[in-house]
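Checklist before submission:
- one chain only
- standard amino acids only
- sequence pasted in full

Submission:
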Amino acid sequence: MPAQGKFKRQLSLSDLTFIGFGAIFGSGWLFSASHVGELAGPSGILSWVIGGFAILLLGLVYCELGAAIPRAGGVVRYPVYSHGPLIGYLIGFITLIAYSSLIAIEVEAARQYAAAWWPGLTQKGSSLPTLTGWLVQFALLVVFFLLNYWSIKTFAKSNTIVTIFKFFVPALTIIVLLTQLKSANFSIHGFAPSGFFGIESAISTGGVIFAYLGLTPIVSVASEAKNPQRTIPIALILSVVLSTIVYVLLQVAFLGSIPTDMLTGGWAGVGKEFSLPFKDIAAVLGIGWLAFIIVSDAIISPSGTGNIYMSTTPRVVYGWARSGTLFKIFARVDEKSGIPRPAVWLSFIMSVFWTLPFPSWEALISVVSAALVLSYAIAPIAAGAFRHNAPDLPRPFRLKGMAIFGPLSFIIASFIVYWSGWNTISWLLGSQLVMFVIYVLFKKWVPTDVVSFAQQVKSSWWLVFYYGAMIAISYFGLFGGTKALGHPWDLIIVTVVSLVTYYWGSRTGLPEAVFDDDDVEQLEHVQSTKNVG
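Returned file contents:
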């Protein structure tokens, strides 16, 4: 392993909470409300509640992992510790793609809203950027890069300021729009005009889950948190609860403030009529000053979230490199700053790349949502495996009821993946199976010094089974598939596959969890702390 400096513990509870809330509260609130309304009508409110519950369950599992083993890039490293480098390689690949593209999505969102003031940023009649628009996006990415290249504290201070503004504008929007509430909007076409199908679609393809996916930035900077055993669980729970409350109120305010006569034809045209939902509804209601403030925030909020993921993605790269299945140079940490600078460079280059072929916010949300949920969903299985192969691991926060919360959180995550649809699942999970085959074919170059190749494969078959089964279910399912499987049989089969996968995966981890050499000091520190849960 290359010589390197150490991460510096500089982040407080408030820093972590602002990172979590700021990561969750990005472009999702600016675009999702109209998509959710179009797909589910008033019942879209339930989509936000279900989504928040799902993320909270996964967050509770991360509380145990993050407090017990606060590692940089933990989302990638936990499965390596529990199941070996092969699982870390697969999860590292899918997580890096999702995180780096998230940075690009956020600058795309900022540019699309900024076009309300500067039309030359976007091509007429489309969401594609002009050359000027792309250069503005590039400039934002350069700013994010510089903020994260010099110091984690510089990043945290800038993020706190942005997050305060990000909270103020949605709160103001809620208050103003609730004064325009029209109760008839919630019953004019029934509460759930598309039934449960609409609620499901809104969660995955409407942007609900995409809007919530901000948990892992907290875990990824765990090595730089003060008293991580206490602050990580609190920050995770606070971030999810606060975000759920705000998102539900925003959806209610949007649906209720639309002029009722605009809904005579149903909810189907809401997404097109209000493509920039809160700015457009403010304009329709004649509240110009609110539209001005929303556009201002629409440039700042996604930028703040993009900045957070420019900080998080290098930690994922670092974690992947530590597993031995990515170039070792990316496991270097600068001696003075405590920043993994080679990983920051790679994150910047990839984020620029993602701005080239994918032109709009809508183009990637279902793919990114499914990819991130998949990376999150491994956490319950890793935590379950640690209960078997690392029973003596000190757990300052021990999740009571893991026997229930573990499989339940994995089942819900599988639902979300299934709801993302055949087009997304076929290539996303298909590419993971291809990556597995590549790993096996090039076994001469994979790390086997700690975990044998045979053991790595043995500890990975459950994931191969899961990917194959989900592809098959999606093909025959209702969401872009042949529709041979209807409700509730599709969800029942997903549940059975998820339970088989969970118990198989949690019981076929490594015989004994294997931690990095540089984790010894951290584990000794954890041993000396008191339980907080």
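Reviewer check: The longest helix spans residues 288-322.
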